[in-house]
Amino acid sequence: MEYVLRTDKLTKRFGEKCAVDGVSMQIKKGDIYGFIGKNGAGKTTLMRLVLGVANPTSGSIKLFGNTPLVQARHRIGALLEYPCLYKNCSAYENMKRFSLLTGTSAKQINKILKLVGLDKVGNKKVSQFSLGMKQRLGIGIALLGNPEFLILDEPVNGLDPAGIKEIRDVILRLNRERGITILISSHLLDELSKLVTTYGIINNGRLIEQISAEELEAKCRHQLAITVDNPKKAYALLSCIAEKDTIKLDGNTIFMYSLLDRSADINRLLVNHGIKVSELNVQAGRLEEYFLERLGG
């Protein structure tokens, strides 16, 4: 397994406050890693530690295997909070100014602007940009130097639905077309669920859990809950029309994760076989509840 980032018991204290408390996390190459936590949970502080903007109190950081940190950080692009932009300059002029740090050519700048959807704004000044356009320009600047790992801190914060979709499309394009590994923090769970491959849940500076999107979906997917008077007979009957791994028996209730659109047919089948159905309903996925439980409500 190839990892872009590994931390071991990473800790950062500010006086008596422990902002990052013994975090051991792993981000695989090619992942979109969703970092979830309340405000003040330690997300931004951890990102700053990874970038070298702040120094850890204890613990270790490994980037791209055992590449020396000074060298490895040249392979990272980042957008922490809101981008610092030259408001009286165009998108291209902003990119050109920041490219002095990386030596990026004009041709590459134009490619990046196209990638983030800002290749047709011409000489329009950044002061006239929407917040979503500014965030996309910030991501464009983070892409200067052709990074392999991108760190984005709340990139959709404050955006309207259209702006959120624009950022989401850019992130997916970067991951799928360029193979860039991405660490993204957000408190918008529904939006993260459309993007990420792995979740990291942090609370009060401590990493509570790391879980893959597939594992989380299995735990939080929609289900059909059927309460009956003869659960064993009902389970055997329903196993004939659905895959066994999509059915679970719990007391007098059967949970089905398939055929959710055939609830009327299922009810009719059970009744026709002499099984009394006292309750049958579709239960929505409990993604938000899952995270709230781990974040202490």
And the CATH topology of the largest domain? Rossmann fold
CATH class of the largest domain: Alpha Beta
Provide the low-confidence segments as ranges: none
Q: How many domains is the backbone divided into?
A: 2
Helix content: 25-40%
Report how far the terminal alpha carbons are from each other. 34 Å
Total beta-strand segments: 14
Descriptive account of the structure:
- This protein is α/β, with parallel strands linked by helices.
- The chain folds into 2 domains: about 5-215, P-loop containing nucleotide triphosphate hydrolases (Rossmann fold, 3-Layer(aba) Sandwich); about 220-290, Protein-tyrosine phosphatase receptor IA-2 ectodomain (Alpha-Beta Plaits, 2-Layer Sandwich).
- The chain has helices at about 45-50, 70, 90-100, 105-115, 130-140, 160-180, 190, 215-220, 230-240, 265-270, 285-295, and strands at about 5-15, 15-25, 25-30, 30-35, 60-65, 75-80, 150-155, 180-185, 200-205, 205-210, 225-230, 245-250, 255, 275-285.
